[in-house]
Fold Sulfurtransferase TusA family protein.
Amino acid sequence: MTAEAPEIYDLRGLNCPLPVLRSRKRLAALPSGTILVVETTDPLASLDLPAMCMEDGHQLVSVERTDGGHRFTIVKG
């Protein structure tokens, strides 16, 4: 879970609101500064996860489109 080897959290196949709820719970269990890569297939996650990061004080480093979904790189605040 370091910058060299971030944790990949596979939430593909889950629909709203589960990607946000599970990401929030996973981030709460991690120390500040940890990088978490979240993979989703829910189209609403492209709106919901950035909003969650803003609300909870995490840094959204990048959002990438993948085959069938998105990959979010988040640094826990």
Observations:
- The chain is about 30% helix and 35% strand.
- The radius of gyration is 11 Å.
- Strands lie at 7-11, 35-40, 59-66, 69-75.
- The mean pLDDT is 94.
